[in-house]
Amino acid sequence: MSARGGAALDLTPAPAAGRPLSILLLEDSALDAQLVAAQLEEGGLPSTLECVPGRAAFTAALAKGKFDLILSDYNVPGFDGMSALEAAQAVCPDTPFLFVSGALGEDRAIELLKRGATDYVLKDRLERLGPSVRRALREAEGVRLRKRTEEALRRSEERYQLVAHASFDAIWDWDLQTDAMHWIGDATEEVFGFPLEEVAADAAWWRRHIHVEDRERVLAGLQRAFDSDDDRWQDEYRVLRKDASYAYVAAQGCIVRGASGGARRIVGAMRGITERRQAEEERQRLVHEAQARVEFEQQLIGIVSHDLRNPLAAILTGASLMLRREDIQPWHAKAAARILSAAERATRMIRDLLDFTQARMGGGIPVEAEPCDFHALTSQVVEEARTTHPERTVLVEQTGDGQGAWDSDRMAQVLSNILGNALKYSPEDTPVRVESRGETDALVVRVVNGGEPIAPELLPRIFEPLQRGTRVGRSERSIGLGLYIVRQLVLAHGGTVDARSSAEEGTVFTVRLPRVPSRETAAWRASGQVRPPEEPHVVAASDAGPGAKSSS
Predict the structure, then answer these.
(1) CA 132 → CA 40, 230, 261, 334, distances in Å?
(2) CA 133, CA 114: separation in Å to the nearest integer?
(3) Quick check: 254 and 267 in contact, CB under 8 A?
(4) Which of 69, 151, 313, 536 is the one with CA 20 to 30 A from 389?
């Protein structure tokens, strides 16, 4: 259909093997719709797109068809993205919903993700559409698989309950008229720890062995079952064992009623479920940890977007105004240019950190390799470090050919993180040495600093996220992602990074980068996978001494 009409618009990319994706696209711009279709085709995602321009057509499409994916612009005349998301969640809550918009601020994007959107892609970065769609489809398939598994488990449990009507480990027969309670089978000892001959033949013994915190609830539940028309009763509670420990049990019984309908007898069975309850408690613990991690990510995004962007904008504005002054002195101009360059790089780093924080549970950091002189890049980063740390001595040694294909911004980020780490955790009266050496097929960078070595127990974990070293005499507000980001960026270039630390040698970070991407790395970039191929990094801790250092 026309992008603003009401009939079908054929934007289907060329089909590949297997069924094409069925995608609903809310977009009032025919040109933007064609760009989305072209990007899907370029990304190897054969699809059948149904493009709708507004609320009525979108609602009708949701009602009549089942879609694999929903793509939506945020700003559609008479219809906003939040309303579209709510409408889709009401009809097909399990269908992935991605925003493809040209006007979507970070605060709004975060809110949409909280409300249930799977992801968002900006129209000026449509190259992310393919990887985002693949990730969304994988996550949706995982949800569907989990639900199928849970449904199968529920049905299996239901069948098990029907078959094992009263066939738990310990069998009992309770005469409600006399309060006599007979236990059958040696398996009673497995539940209570008492031999069968030591178990009293009356219900009072059983009541006494119910945990005092569970007793009132269990007996009240039994009484409700007796007073109702139910013929079944079941509960879970704790019982006191012979060794004075408590065990969780699951009990159920079949109520036998007299001619008047009153309960006269209940026959049931009981089995220990302590291990299951412990597993459930462990699962709950893991769920709470996962929730805490999600809350941390949201807080981190808020801190970066709100607390850092405003002061950086002020720095950029101030440095730009200084450079525009006609009477500026040369050395003032040079300082302002360095401030401007550093602030711009910091802004890019914040942008990258936001992307990384959003995707760090399932994706790597994208890089764009272009011809680069690594020696020149190293000199630039070192010069910036000297400007911000005029009291420190930073030595540079460069040998061999520094030419290759790397993402210069990302590599500057790597060098800045490692060099900043070295300056932060080394004495001010000791030099920091930066070496860049060109080899036949690779370039090697070493950053060496003195001072106390990294503690042996910390060294193997310094490239993991949220790992921070201690700093004596200074308050550090780091979040412990610096070296983790370094490793991910190096891996994305097909390289390796390692660290070693000793009292004799100092702390040495070594980055090895191929001059051109390896076949595996190139294949990864072309495929749109979310994480670069993992290459092992070497961390030598055998000769490390006491102390603690790490990047923030």
Answers:
(1) 11, 52, 62, 42
(2) 18
(3) yes
(4) 313
| pLDDT of amino acid 141 | 86
Q: In sequence order, what E strands does 309-421 have?
A: 370-373, 394-399, 403-406
C-alpha–C-alpha distance, residues 310 and 118, integer Å:
28
d(CA 521, CA 423): 32
Q: How far apart are the first and last CA of the chain?
A: 53
Q: Provide the 8-state DSSP code for 517.
A: -
* Residue 487 CA from chain centroid, whole number: 17
The two tokens of residue 269 are 């069975």
Position 192 scores a pLDDT of 87
Q: In this predicted structure, what is the pLDDT of residue 176? A: 93
Do the beta carbons of residue 99 and residue 121 sit within 8 Å?
yes
Question: In this structure, are residues 179 and 263 in contact, taking their beta carbons and an 8 Å threshold?
Answer: no
Coil, strand or helix: which one is 249? strand
| DSSP tag of 305 | I
Model pTM score: 0.40
Residue type at position 296: F
Backbone angles phi, psi at 237, to 5 degrees: -160, 180
How far, CA to CA in Å, does 271 sit from each of 72, 164, 191, 537?
A: 53, 11, 6, 49
Cα–Cα distance, 27 to 4 (Å, whole number): 8
Q: Which residues contact 512 (CB under 8 A, 6 or more apart)?
A: 442, 443, 444, 495, 496, 497
Task: Give the count of alpha carbons within 13 A of 517, CB side only.
Answer: 21
Counting as low any pLDDT under 70, the low residues of the chain are: 1-18, 156-168, 185-186, 295, 297-307, 309-310, 348-349, 351-365, 465-481, 518-552
Structure tokens, 468 = 């921070």
Contact 238, 214 (CB under 8 A): yes
Nearest CA-CA partner of 274 in 252, 251, 250: 250
User: Sign of the CA dihedral 471, 473, 474, 475?
Assistant: positive
- Give dist(CA 109, CA 125) in Å, integer: 15
